[in-house]
Each structure stands twice: as C-alpha cells, then as structure tokens.
Specification:
This protein has about 325 residues and is α+β, with helices and mostly antiparallel strands. The protein has 7 helices and 15 strands. The protein folds into 2 domains: about 190 residues, Fructose-1,6-Bisphosphatase, subunit A, domain 1 (Fructose-1,6-Bisphosphatase, Chain A, domain 1), CATH 3.30.540; about 130 residues, D-Maltodextrin-Binding Protein, domain 2 (3-Layer(aba) Sandwich). Strand 1 and strand 2 form a beta hairpin. The longest helix has 22 residues. The protein is globular. The structure holds 2,5-anhydro-1,6-di-O-phosphono-D-glucitol and manganese (II) ion (2 copies).
Amino acid sequence: MKDLVTLEEYIIRAQNKFPGATGELSQLLRDIGLAAKIISREVNKAGITNILGYEDSENVHGESQKKLDLFANEQLISALSRSNITCMVISEENEGVVRLSGEAGKYIVYMDPLDGSSNIDVSVSIGSIFSVYMRPESKKKLAEGDALQSGEKQVAAGYVLYGSSTVLAYTTGLGVRIFTLDPSIGEFILSHEDVKIPEYGNIYSADEGSYNFWDPGLKQYVKYCQEIDPDTGRPYKARYVGCMAADVHRTLLQGGIFMYPDSSKYPNGKLRLMYECNPLSFIIEQAGGLAIDGSRRIMEIQPASLHECTPIYIGSRKNVEKLREFFVEFNTANSSR
Ligand code: AHG
Ligand code: MN
Ligand code: MN
C-alpha cells in the first residue's frame, strides 16, 4: 500500500523541521481540520436532513443566512476556541470581532465559514476559507484595528472545498499542500505536495451575465478569450461555479483566470478582501500565480475595515499579465481600472 500521510502527521512533521516552533500554529491548523471534517459530514447530509432552508436572520451584508452558514461558523469558532491559541476571529457571519476566551492567544483568524452558499440547495460545491495573522506582540488588549493587517502579513491561509470530494489546501508561506478527505476513515490524506499552478491556462471564469456593467478593458479581454487562435489555446473555455473557493481551486490545478471585477453594479467588487481574496491570493502566489485588484497586488492592500470588498483577478501568471495589458490599454481614467 502507498505510504499514506494524514494532515495531522504532515503538520507535525512540518513543525519538527523548525526546532524552535511552539506548535501553536500546527495546533490551530489541526483545529481547523477537525472543524472541516464536521462541516463536511453535515454538508453531505444536507440534502436529507432539515438543515436546508433559510434562518430568520441576515448577515452583515444583508444577505439571508442559511443554516449551514451558521453551523459552519459555530463549528469553526468552537474548534478555534479549544486551545487558547486564537485571540479573535473575524467572520463573514459576525459584524464585529469575536473575542475568544484565550484573549492572550497569539493568532487572529479571519474566515468565510461557508463560501458559495447559493450552491447549497442545488448540491453544487461550497467551501470554507481561512486566513491567519499574528496578534501585535506588545498589546495586551486588542482593538479592532489591530486586525487590519495587509495580506502580506498572513502567516497561514487555506480553504476547504466540499466538492465531489472534500479537499483542504493550506500554505504557511512554504508552498501549497492539498489533502483529500477519506470519509471511510475520517482522515485528510496528503494528495498534492508543493502544488504549482500552470503558468498559462485556457479557462476564464467570471459572471458574464454582468458584462454590461463592466469597464471596457474587461469587456475587451473577455472578447480576446473568445477569439479563435489555436496557437494560444483560444477560444478559452468558460467555467463559473459561483463559489470562489471552487473556482480558485480549479484555477490552481488547471490554470487560467478567475475574475470578480468592480463594475457599475458593484463599485468595489463583491468579494471580501480579508477572508476571501487575501487567503486565496496567498495560496495562488505560493503556487506561482498572481492576484491583483486591477493594478496592485491584492496582498499589498492596506485594509480600512473588516468586511471591505475588492475587485480581484487571480490565476496563472501569464493570464493575469495579459489581462493587465487590456486594462492599461482600454480603461480610461474614469473607468478607474
Ligand atoms: P458567500 O456565499 O460567502 O456569500 O460567497 C459567495 C461569493 C463567491 O464565493 C462567489 O465567487 C461569488 O459570491 C458569486 O457571486 P455572484 O452570484 O455575483 O456571481
Ligand atoms: Mn464567500
Ligand atoms: Mn460565506
């Protein structure tokens, strides 16, 4: 039998390579792994239990929350509360910061507990996304502003995708690993080590129904993707799951570009900088790809608020660079990007 490496073993082995490591980040990642297994089990049962349907509440963005969003939120917060390592959590499902009992804990965690909620009712992929920062060392009592750090300061990030199989990908800044859940033994097994994104891919991913709200540069770029040119693999294929974690996971493995632009409908885009764009940008950059907001690297953006949005263009290096050329050529000063 092939030598199977579980997520837990892998994390411990990785930690042992750093003699001074306290093991706290390893524990935090294992806690997230545990929550992911519980959420995965519930996601798979969702169609046959009464967990589907709307809760009578809205999240901070005014969107109706479904029960699975709340369940995932609770599971992740409770897993992170287990070991007093995390001092605060910022979740899509909570307006303010959630302070955990381990107030002296070393890490601040951002998360989108359930990404792609509109896919739940139709049995299409959904995910969880997380991003980890250090708390500022000198401070005893943290203010909300202490959580507003740029993506470059992330010490770890990852996602779980509840798809045709459940996979967990993470990085601590030393490349990207992917684990696949074997439900029969309840373990995440290492399936891809040191993942690299293809430097060029022939898949583009965007909600083209919003085409008329876009800036000229993006319209022209999408026309370029559709042109026939066998030498560059065009026309590209179009794929859009409506779950960023799933669209970025496919992009990581197959290459291409995923785009959620700013538009006249969403002036700052719709995706959240701190718990959607930064963690997935960290993963894609660690795999050799790029993630920009049109001009800047996503991870260089200095956040002004916990739940802010940003446009994002993320994927294979050559695809993102090509898109940038279209923005420079076709976007006017008024259409800022
Ligand atoms: P969430 O379910 O956490 O609100 O996130 C959904 C996000 C993202 O995952 C996806 O890429 C995007 O919303 C889809 O938006 P549109 O429906 O506007 O295409
Ligand atoms: Mn989301
Ligand atoms: Mn969500």
